[in-house]
Amino acid sequence: MVDAAECCVKVMCRFRPLNESEITRGDKYIPKFKEDTVVISGKPYIFDRVFPPNTTQEQVYDTCAKQIVKDVLDGYNGTIFAYGQTSSGKTHTMEGQLHNSQLKGIIPRIAQDIFDHIYSMDENLEFHIKVSYFEIYMDKIRDLLDVSKTNLAVHEDKNRVPFVKGCTERFVSSPEDVMDVIDEGKSNRHVAVTNMNEHSSRSHSIFLINIKQENVETEKKLSGKLYLVDLAGSEKVSKTGAEGSVLDEAKNINKSLSALGNVISALAEGTKTHVPYRDSKMTRILQDSLGGNCRTTIVICCSPSVYNEAETKSTLMFGQRAKTIKNTVSVNMELTAEEWKKKYEKEKEKTRNLKIIIQRLENELKRWRKGETVPADEQHSSKELKNSEAAPIIEASAPPPERLSDSEKTQYEELINDLYQQLDDKDDEINQHSQLAENLKQQMVDQDELLASTRRDYEKIQEDLSRLQHENEAAKEEVKEVLQALEELAVNYDQKSHEVEDRSKTNQQLTEELMQKSVTLAGVERDLSALQELSGHHKKRSAEILSLLLRDLNEIGSVIALNDHKMTEMNGGMEEEFTMARLFISKMKSEVKSLVNRSKQLESTQADTMRKMQANEKELASCQLLISQVLAVIYLEQQTAPSSGDSTSEHCIWVILHNVPIVTSLQNWINNFIFFF
């Protein structure tokens, strides 16, 4: 490593155009630009460069990053990061549209520019380029190239430079390889939708390019690291509308950005007794970029809307503080044996001169203590002292290098290595304890949730138990009432059983009588049928007699008409015969009349009999239906007596009791019918 030199952190300010929501809202455009100065509300803010909204991506790259690429290839460390509130254009500045030649940002342009420079350099140079891509999400380092690595630790190397231990490193040999890695990591990055940004970054992403080069002829080795950081934006929750997990992310983002602001403030004040790098993972990683061995450029991104005026002023103040930070940069070079020897001789000469000066000062101090007066020409001059201070002075607590033997040097080197190892072990232990604390915290949360759930279940069970107890008491009362009702039913059942037996006997007797009456009724129906046949026969006979009489009368009338002229001749002889005929006709008329009357009487008797028969048939059908119902109930009682004897017996009894009048009327009707016939 060559001699170090101081350089200030460069701060560039970029304003984006008004977005659609700001234009729709009618927000006022507040910044005024004048060379490298921006004026907000009458107050000027001066930076290394100010980019108005119409600045192209290429112009931003040429100003902010092009020189850093050359510095990294010359063996320096470099850092470029974008800072600003959410939706201010940080990701657009750092990444842009990765595969659009006009709108791509700093990172894809650097990937191309690095290889363009390498192709134009000395052919004797051999390059090894590695890239890493990780994010800091919820203050945990997450490897974007291996999502299984979710909580990586930050360690320090032998030069006290922080690095992320265990992070995936990919060797690349072309710009396309770099872009493939960027695409892969970008697909794993955390983003979310808020009221101010449809693709709001929820984590700080860091793309690290590690370049090592070696001259195969001179064996000169240089190395440089380039950190490209896209910070998540600070958020005002009232504007972004964050809630739930997005709100937790916003809290962690604001916390880490606050830690970054504290580091910037401590470095800007110049009080380097304590700089709080360890307050967050992000500031720990950027420790070398802020006040260390690194050429750093910060791009602060701002909104031109009056709606975000407070956040814009805060961002500009951050940039002004960061502009005062000074880094001590030096080339990362591995010296050859010859160079180490020359450096050793040079340091040895400086040490010898210092030793002489110390000896003279000790002698001069002894003389002063003895009370002697040291002439001015013998005193050590301040000029010599300043010249000696220009050389690298060894701390008073450290012994002169010449006094250290090889074994002591080895011992001290081993001691230093052990101390560094202990620091790494402590970092690992802290990380493990942190993870354990997180796990225990999560377990406590789970246990609290389980306890709350158990408590809710217990309360619910208590309520159910109380309800069941009340239901049990009510059920006991119901059981008592049911038992009383059963006792009453048992008593009633015994009574009804006796009644059913009596009614069954009565019903059986009635059934037998009904069967007898049915037989009698069948006989009566047969007699009635015979009478009907006899009546029909009499009618037929009467009709035949009347027909014969009418025919005889017609014949007599015809004879009388034909033999009317003979009446005078036969008057004497026929008078007697005519008288006899008249008597016969008179007798026949009386017989016909009596037959007609008898026929009418039989017809009326038949009509009455038919009416009575129809009424009796209807009553007989109703009685048969009633008997079949009673028999069905009795049969059902016999079939279901073991299971539902009470209800069936009661129903049977009810049917019999309610139909006893009908049975009685049936019996009376049968008796009347028999009496009629």
TrEMBL record:
Residues 330-371, 409-503 form a coiled coil. Signal peptide: none annotated. Residues 388-397 have a biased composition (Low complexity). Residues 8-325 form the Kinesin motor domain. One of its GO terms (biological process) is system development. ATP binds at G84, Q85, T86, S87, S88, G89, K90, T91. CDD domains: KISc_KHC_KIF5. Residues 372-387 have a biased composition (Basic and acidic residues). GO terms for molecular function: ATP binding; microtubule binding; microtubule motor activity. Keywords: ATP-binding, Coiled coil, Cytoplasm, Cytoskeleton, Microtubule, Motor protein, Nucleotide-binding. Residues 372-406 are annotated as: Disordered. It comes from the Eukaryota. The keyword Coiled coil applies. It is found in: Cytoplasm, Cytoskeleton. GO terms for cellular component: microtubule. Belongs to the TRAFAC class myosin-kinesin ATPase superfamily. Kinesin family. This is Kinesin-like protein.
